[in-house]
Design goal:
The chain contains two helices and six strands. With 80 residues, the protein is an alpha+beta fold.
């Protein structure tokens, strides 16, 4: 099965992917995400998308958190 990469925002709820790259994000926010375990090579699951362009809910290392769609679009994931 071929692997493809896309923006985290393009995943469907319930989909899982490995973070390939995080680019263009504010360094402070990137550090906060790293403190939650979000970094390159980590598996992440998209749990849901808020209505009306609301936040994106993610699960990483057993933790649930939400980020803005703008930041989710800056995270590239590899999906199978």
């Amino acid at each position: 099965m071929a692997l493809s990469s896309c923006s985290l925002l393009r995943l469907q709820p319930g989909s899982t992917g490995s973070i390939q790259r995080i680019e263009g994000m504010d360094p402070i926010l990137r550090r906060r995400l790293a403190d939650l375990g979000v970094s390159e090579g980590v598996m992440i699951r998209l749990k849901g998308k808020g209505p009306f362009m609301g936040p994106v809910t993610l699960e990483c290392n057993g933790q649930l958190f939400a980020i803005r769609r703008k930041e989710a679009s800056m995270i590239e994931v590899k999906v199978s």
